[in-house]
Design goal:
Radius of gyration: 20 Å
Order of helices and strands: HHHHHHHHHHHHHH
Structural class: mainly alpha
Number of strands: 0
Helix content: over 70%
Shape: globular
Distance between the termini: 24 Å
Number of helices: 14
Largest sheet: none
C-alpha cells in the first residue's frame, strides 16, 4: 500500500508530535512546578526547586528517551534493510540481550565502577558478539524462519547467562542492578548518562545514515548493489558495527528495551515508499516519539512501583510480533 503522505510531510508531523510529547513529558511528574521557570533557572545556573526537578530529573530523562528511541528505531530499520527481512530487530535477534549481558558482566564483577567507559564498552561488545553469532548461525541469505530461530537461540543463551549471573549475584544490590538491566528503565537518570549515550548514539546514527544509498541499492538485490559499485561485505560490516554501537550505548544507560526497532519500521514503511534509506530516518523519529510516550505512561503509576519501560514496549511489541509471524507464515512454506 503506497501512502499519499509525502516523506517531508511525514517528517514534519513526527517532529511536531515529538515536540508536543516533550512538552507533556516535562510537565509530567509528582512535583507541581513551573517548567518554563525551571528551565530558565537551570540554564542560568540558579538554584531552585523547579530548576532541580526539571534540570536534574525530567530533562535528562526526556533527552535519553529521544536518543534511545531514535537509536533503536533506526537500528531496527537498518537491520531490516540489511537482512531484507521485515522481522529483524535488535531485540528479536538477541542483540539487546547480548548488550545487557555485557553490561551485567561489568556490574557483576564490579568493573563498571572503576571507569565510566567499561559499561558502554561491554554492552557494545556484547551486542556485536551476539549479532555476529546470529550472522554466523543463520547467514545473510537465510530464510525468515532460520533467522528468527538463530536470533531466538542467541537471545535464549544470553538470557540464560543473565539468569546465572542473577542466581550467583554477590549481593542484593547487585541482584537489583541485574534485574534493572533486564527490565529497562529511565528512572533516576541524569546528564552523566546522557553524556555516555549521546556521543555513541550520534556516531551510530552517522554510520547508519551514511549507508542509506547502499541499503536502497541492496533492496534491488546483492548483484544490483555490487553492480552499482558497492562493496557489499564492507558496507555490511559498517552497518553491523553501527547497530552494535547504538544498541550497546542505549542498553548501557537504560537496560534492555525491545521491540521498538520491530514495530516502528513496519508502521512507517508505507509512508516512505518502501525505501530503506528514508525508513531509517523516519524510524528514528518514530522510535523517539514512541519511547517518549511510553515514558510518560510509566510515570503515571506510583513511583514506588513504577512500571518499567521494557515491560511497556514488550506488551506492545510482542503481540505485534506475533501478528507479523501469522501474516507472513505462508511465505515460509
Amino acid at each position: 500500500m503506497q501512502s499519499r503522505i509525502s516523506f517531508t510531510t511525514l517528517t514534519c508531523l513526527l517532529v511536531l508530535a515529538i515536540a508536543l510529547a516533550s512538552v507533556i513529558a516535562l510537565n509530567t511528574g509528582l512535583a507541581d512546578i513551573d517548567v518554563i521557570q525551571g528551565l530558565q533557572d537551570f540554564f542560568n545556573g540558579e538554584q531552585s526547586l523547579a530548576a532541580n526537578v526539571v534540570g536534574q530529573i525530567r530533562l535528562p530523562r526526556l533527552i535519553l528517551a529521544i536518543v534511545i528511541g531514535a537509536t533503536l528505531g533506526m537500528s531496527g530499520a537498518a537491520m531490516q534493510g540489511l537482512l531484507r527481512n521485515p522481522l529483524a530487530d535488535p531485540g528479536v535477534l538477541g542483540v539487546s540481550s547480548g548488550a545487557a549481558f555485557g553490561a551485567i558482566c561489568t556490574l557483576y564483577f564490579g568493573i563498571a565502577a572503576s571507569a565510566w567507559y567499561w559499561l558502554p564498552s561491554a554492552a557494545i561488545l556484547g551486542a556485536l558478539f551476539t549479532l555476529f553469532m546470529v550472522y554466523v548461525l543463520a547467514g545473510l541469505h537465510s530464510s525468515m524462519l532460520a533467522l528468527i530461530l538463530a536470533g531466538t537461540a542467541m537471545s535464549a543463551i544470553m538470557v540464560s547467562l543473565i539468569a546465572v549471573a542473577l542466581n550467583f549475584a554477590p549481593s542484593l544490590y547487585a541482584m537489583q542492578e541485574i534485574v534493572f538491566w533486564m527490565l529497562g528503565s529511565l528512572a533516576n537518570r541524569h546528564f552523566d548518562h546522557v553524556s555516555i549515550a549521546l556521543p555513541l548514539a550520534v556516531i551510530s546514527w552517522i554510520m547508519m545514515l551514511s549507508r542509506s544509498r547502499f541499503l536502497d541499492a541492496l533492496s534491488l538485490g546483492e548483484d544490483s548493489a555490487r553492480s552499482l559499485g558497492f562493496n557489499n561485505q564492507r558496507e555490511r560490516w559498517i552497518l553491523l558495527v553501527a547497530i552494535s554501537i547504538g544498541v550497546g550505548a542505549c542498553v548501557a544507560v537504560s537496560g534492555a528495551i525491545g521491540f521498538i526497532g520491530l514495530v516502528i519500521p513496519h508502521l512507517l514503511r508505507p509512508f516512505v515508499g518502501y525505501r530503506p534509506g528514508r525508513l531509517m530516518f523516519a524510524s528514528a523519529l518514530g522510535g523517539a516519539l514512541l519511547l517518549v510516550l511510553a515514558d510518560i505512561l510509566v510515570r503515571q503509576f506510583d513511583s514506588a512501583r513504577e512500571l518499567k519501560l521494557g515491560v511497556v514496549t514488550s506488551l506492545v511489541g510482542a503481540p505485534f510480533f506475533l501478528l507479523l509471524i501469522l501474516k507472513t507464515r505462508s511465505r515460509w512454506a
